[in-house]
Amino acid sequence: MRTVIVPGGLLLAVALAVAQPATAEVTDQKIKYGIQNGLSFAKKCVDETTNEGQLALAGLAMLEAGVDPTDEAIQKIAKRVRATAVEQASTYHLALSIMFLERMGQDVDDQLIQSMGVRLTAGQNAAGGWSYICPGPKADEVKRLAGAVNEANLKGSKDPPKIKPSKPAEEAGKSTQVDPEIADMVRNPKKYLDYSKVFNPAGQEDNSNTQFAILGLWAARRHGVPVETALSNAEARFRGSQVDGGWWYNSSTTNRQVTPSMTCAGLLALAVGIGHRSERRLKGRIKFNPDGSVAAGAGQETPGIPDPLKSDKEVQLGYKFLVNALGGRNSADPRDNFYLMWSLERVCMVYGWAKLGNLDWHIWGADRILSTQNADGGWGGSPNSQMRTSNIIDTSFAIMFLCRANLVKDLTGMFKRSLKGDKGPADVKKSEPKPADSAAAAKTDPKNPSNSATATELDPAAMTKDLTLASGAKQAELIKQYTDKAGSAYTQALLDAIPDLSDEARKTAREGLAQRMSRMSADTLRKYLTHDNPEARRAAAYGAAMREEKELIPDLIAAVGDPEELVVRAARVALRSLSNNKEDFGPPPGASEEQKKEAMAGWTAWMKKQK
Question: Which of 400, 422, 444 is the last residue of a domain?
Answer without folding.
Answer: 422
